[in-house]
Amino acid sequence: MPMPASVQSGSGQLPITQSFSVAVTGTHEVSLDAGVQRFTKQLSQLTGIPFRPAAGATPTLTIHADHGRDAIQKLGEDESYELTVSDSGAKIDAPTPLGALCGLETFLQLVTITPNGFAAPAVTIKDQPRFPWRGMLIDVSRHFIPIDVLKRNLDGMAAVKMNVLHWHLSDDQGFRAESKKFPKLTGMGSDGQFYTQDEIRDLISYAHDRGIRVVPEFDMPGHTRSWFLGYPELASGPGPYTLEGGGIDPAIDPTRESTYKFLETFIAEMAKLFPDAYFHIGGDEVDGKQWDANPKIQEFIKAHGMKNNQDLQAYFNKRLEKIVTKNHKIMVGWDEILHPDLPKNIVVQSWRGQQSLAVAAQQGYRGLLSYGYYLDLMWPTSRHYAVDPMSGAAANLTPEQKALILGGESCQWAEWVTPENIDSHIWPRNAAIAERFWSPQSVVDVNSMYARMHAVSLELESLGLMHLAARRQMLQRMAGTADITSLKVLANVVEPVKDYARSDTLQRPIDFHMPLNHMIDAAYPESDTARQFGEAVQQFIQSGYKDEAAEAQIRTRLLLWRNNDAKLHPLLEQSSLLQENVPISQNLAMLGATGLQALDYLDKGQPEPDLWKTQQAAVIEQAKKPVAGLLLQVTEPVEQLVQAASKITVH
Amino acid sequence: MPMPASVQSGSGQLPITQSFSVAVTGTHEVSLDAGVQRFTKQLSQLTGIPFRPAAGATPTLTIHADHGRDAIQKLGEDESYELTVSDSGAKIDAPTPLGALCGLETFLQLVTITPNGFAAPAVTIKDQPRFPWRGMLIDVSRHFIPIDVLKRNLDGMAAVKMNVLHWHLSDDQGFRAESKKFPKLTGMGSDGQFYTQDEIRDLISYAHDRGIRVVPEFDMPGHTRSWFLGYPELASGPGPYTLEGGGIDPAIDPTRESTYKFLETFIAEMAKLFPDAYFHIGGDEVDGKQWDANPKIQEFIKAHGMKNNQDLQAYFNKRLEKIVTKNHKIMVGWDEILHPDLPKNIVVQSWRGQQSLAVAAQQGYRGLLSYGYYLDLMWPTSRHYAVDPMSGAAANLTPEQKALILGGESCQWAEWVTPENIDSHIWPRNAAIAERFWSPQSVVDVNSMYARMHAVSLELESLGLMHLAARRQMLQRMAGTADITSLKVLANVVEPVKDYARSDTLQRPIDFHMPLNHMIDAAYPESDTARQFGEAVQQFIQSGYKDEAAEAQIRTRLLLWRNNDAKLHPLLEQSSLLQENVPISQNLAMLGATGLQALDYLDKGQPEPDLWKTQQAAVIEQAKKPVAGLLLQVTEPVEQLVQAASKITVH
Q: N or C: less crowded end of chain A, CB within 10 Å?
């Protein structure tokens, strides 16, 4: 995963033994050599085999790159490769080291344990990406994410062939990139947690080694509260400003020349720090209230013949674009920056949908899709997987217009993540999005996706990601020293509420410093158990209640759930972090009992008594309500069983 | 854990909330300030709470150290502290920052989750160590252990108040400390894996911050094969030498002046690199065969009026001791160095038992006990815990002689560990040994020890140790992408063979580069499940078969085991790493069935048929035999059930 463009199976397999070795022919290059070293270490980690090839032995895997890569990775640089594995050896051929690195990641995924040891199956793979821009945005403003956590996520991105880290470095809640010209940006505009320029350079080089570009985003003119603590003169309103915020959303004042003088200096500094050709200026969600409230700004709008705040933002973007261009960068921004006054080389990133991407393409602008790929919305993987940059409105574009769609980016907004649980919010779901950007549009089989994503998930955990380990750690923290077996049974069937429900239920601004140590923070965004249970129920019903294997599976689970609360309840009561889950554990027990009774009726072919049905409807209604921000994701399949049983007619 | 010298419970508890803060009064010092920062981070990690104390608020925890600590930590430096916790605040008072650091570790262990949030119970603790030297030896020669793994183990040592890392840096299989004077020591005497001097200094400083001394060991004149690859002129035989070895054990030639010239330069260099006052020269297990085989050496022995090789080693040690002393260090060595010619300030470390410790003390030498604390022998914790430096022969010493016993060291010899599984060989058992060295001799309750060790084990995992995570990772590797639930059921009841059985069964030298990725490498040295099952069986039998709770627990486990092989068998067959466990999984199933039948006979008060008894004896006999280096640790309790059932007489 991602599925290669072309896979042809051979016969036999290549054993991976202690004598495994790699040789690079053709172009030698620092990042390729480092990549080979990393690959060898990872393969050793995955297999538990310390490699000890005999001196002078024929290499097991030969890597050939035709020519070198640019010092600064370019959009659209060739990432194609051919990988052939036979029972006697393997070979990766690629025009560039970037392609060779992709081939190495594919090889890693081919290696599995077999009855005869670790081995890669014989195969011929010809592969290249569908889109040249395959990114992930990580918001480090709302919650600071340390460099080591970003690094392990870059490892994960490399494993699934993503090639852009979109680093959302500033927002209302914190400015995270050191500016030597304007030290108060982080000095006053953060809680003391930010990246030094040395750390930034180090991360960029780490990403470069893995074939990943780093595109910085400094969001303006909105989402800029953190800038104003140190530099209130940039703001459109008087302040004072605090990171905690409240009140209206502040924005940069686009009417003052001093603003542009500041940005000239700031962008020049950042343009040097970040070598990538693209520079993201944000531009989203300016609500304009602060502009409305400032008479001088409204005067400026009139004086310059503008109609409204949107025109004012376009004016700001135009001036910003000149500064960005002067620093030899290409401007990227969110949907809202789209305006005919801007040159055609800018890139529009759509958080709103394929529609706005299509509109941009029709006007000749390049675009990226992020709508549908927001990891923080807690969607099931299948829902992200179904979103395609070329579907919807984009499907009707001309080939030339379609060529303007560069790819997309998943987005990990950081309202509700910490360094501890961010991995589990990103992975493994992000692997399926990566496949959407890399693999042919025809790769859409959801069952295959889930099976392969499971394998990638284990691979990533073995390579150092913490998406599985973190939940265990967090559940244990909630439970103290108690055994967490029954707590895991509950955790396995719940998911956090979806979309913006968690923020919405607060009915006040989010406190970004509150502890995120509850079940909702530990739960996986998607429950494998619930998905598998739902599938078994589907299968059982579709079989006319005859599929015994499915029924046995359903019954085992229902029994486990019915009996779980009796064990779990005392533990929940003992912990302030778990008490809020008492009702959902009871709901699970009731659902288990309901499901078992429904199964019994189905088995006997006996219709349900009316009173029972009414009772069960109440149970199910209650189980559907979120508890402590958690949804009991096995409710619908149980409801289906009850409904199935209610349709029985006596012959 | 370790249990403090004096604990007085109070009433109420101190809540740990977001406003938690620490203040240091009295002596401020770099390592104390760093310790407080580390403590705050660890407490935040344990609770999941990001602390945000209000400016100027009363500190929750106040720390007072009377005076500073020495730049180089001394043996016997004051580590005592007083910790008082009330419902309104906590206070640590200590003569030195070392004591304050110990108090912080105790505070961390007091914090638990309660129905009302995280809290520390009100308590007054007055604490100081029983022994001033509480160490752990880590062998990094047989398998190289990277700095980051050592660091997390230093964190673990600090958590249980151990204060000496005994760094076994050279042995036959690898020389691991960079010498700039003799670069071929690592250049030819290792597989390329060694510590640079910068890394060594960094580790020493890391340990110092945690109140831990670092004592280097360069083992000589035996265990020195790795030295001879680069410097064959030091050896007593002609060579050539390889790290893989074979043949007789080589030793340094103590008869040549050039040897002492080499050691003068080498020890001077290492004495500067390692600031600790103690310097370990090994001195163990010189079998003398190479000396016997060298006529020049035998001539030397005669010419100098020595009786044998032992005298020659004493001569060597005497000259070595002069060099060590000249470099302002105190010599430490294993039992074998004990010789009246050596000055009384040396320290003898006993791997042979309390007897040799007592002999040394009677002669006025200081001593350390390591016999009984060899973690690589895979003993159950209770067996280590029962060993006391002051028991056996040492119990009869005079108070003055007893005062010469400085403490002890656990030993992690590295024949069978890798960076991946070393944590699980050390932890949590090492915590119980640490308690033996710190707590009063009267602290011996085994049940209390196991309960507290369980809590420490979870604490350590949360602080970054990998002793629990590693097994999961390794089992998953063996299983590929399959579910490992049934594999864990098996893994939970097996232990690696004990003592030197694993090496002995090889009947050839160990290949230190073989993959250690089998079940024996993943299994915990001690099975909690087996211990608890054994206890339940004891309890059930002692209750006259009336304890229903114990019986239910026994029955649940036996059922699980009886049914497990059917699920597990296909998985075992699929993996080359697991196939060898097919018989032990079958044995477990048979034991489960046997145990259930025995229970049934007991329940019915019906005597077992003779034929059945004979069959079960065979089953149990088979289950006792190691399979793939693994012992099925639930065999004895099942045997007890069968024996109990066979004693039934019909009334």
A: C
Which residues on A lie below 8 Å from B469 (Cβ)? 469
Does residue B422 belong to the interface with chain A, where contact is any CB pair within 8 Å?
A: no
The amino acid that residue A240 corresponds to is: P
Is A513 part of the contact surface with chain B (CB cutoff 8 Å)?
A: yes
Distance CA(B101)–CA(B63), nearest Å, equals: 10
Cα-Cα-Cα-Cα dihedral sign, residues B437, B439, B442, B448? negative
The catalytic site residues of A sit at: 285
| Residues written for chain B | 651
The three state secondary structure string of B293-332 is CCHHHHHHHHHCCCCCHHHHHHHHHHHHHHHHHHCCCEEE
Q: Which of B52, B515, B574 sits opposite A513 (nearest CB)?
A: B52
Instruction: Name the residue with tokens 């970004």.
Output: A512
Averages of pLDDT over runs of 10 residues in chain B (651 residues) are 98 97 92 96 97 93 95 97 98 97 98 98 98 98 98 98 98 97 98 97 98 98 97 94 84 97 98 98 91 96 95 96 98 94 95 93 97 98 97 94 98 97 98 98 98 98 96 97 97 97 86 95 98 98 95 98 98 98 98 96 88 92 97 97 83 53
Chain B: closest CA distance from residue A462 (Å)? 7
**ipTM, two decimals:** 0.94
Two tokens, residue B210: 């945690």
Task: Report in angstroms the alpha-carbon separations of B321 from B127, B227, B337, B367, B404.
Answer: 36, 20, 10, 16, 20
CA distance A5 to chain B (A): 24
Task: Write out chain B residues lying below 8 Å of A116, CB-based.
Answer: 576
pLDDT on residue B28: 85
Using DSSP, state whether B17 is helix, strand or coil. Answer: coil
Instruction: Report how far residue A81's alpha carbon sits from residue A87's, in angstroms, rounded to the nearest whole number.
Output: 20
Closest chain A residue by Cα to residue B47: A477
Q: Are strands B22-26 and B61-65 parallel, antiparallel or unpaired?
A: parallel
Chain B residue nearest residue A461, CA to CA:
B473
Q: How far is B583 from chain A (nearest CA, A)?
A: 16
Contacts of B520 in chain A (CB under 8 A): none
**pLDDT 10s digits, A50-82:** 999 998 899 999 999 999 999 999 999 999 999
Chain A residues within 8 A of B244 when measuring between CB atoms: none
Element of type H or E holding B166: strand B164-171
Tell me, yes or no, if B577 comes closer than 8 A to chain A by beta carbon. Answer: yes
In this complex, the residue of B115, B458, B516 whose CB is nearest that of residue A476 is B458
Q: Which pLDDT score is estimated for B647?
A: 82
Predicted pLDDT at B312: 96
Task: Mark yes or no for CB contact A458/B476 under 8 Å.
Answer: yes
Q: Distance from B560 to chain A by nearest Cα, in Å?
A: 14
Residues of B numbered 7-26 whose beta carbons fall under 8 angstroms of chain A's beta carbons: which are they? Answer: 18
DSSP string computed for A250-294: P-B-TT-HHHHHHHHHHHHHHHHH--SSEEE--------HHHHH-
The pLDDT value recorded for residue B609 is 87
Which three-class secondary structure state does DSSP give residue A643?
helix
**Mutating which of A142, A454, A477 best tests the B interface, going by the most B Cβ atoms within 10 A?**
A477
- Nearest by Cα to B336 from B310, B300, B297: B310
* Gap between the Cα atoms of B406 and B74, Å rounded: 13
Across the interface, do B48 and A112 touch by the CB < 8 Å criterion? no
A579 vs B contacts (CB less than 8 Å): 115
Please answer whether residues B601 and B539 qualify as being in contact, where contact means their C-beta atoms are separated by less than 8 angstroms. Answer: no
Q: What is the mean pLDDT of residues A499-512?
A: 88
SS (H, E, C) B341-392: CCCCCCEEEECCCHHHHHHHHHCCCEEEECCCCEHHHCCCHHHHHCCCCCCH
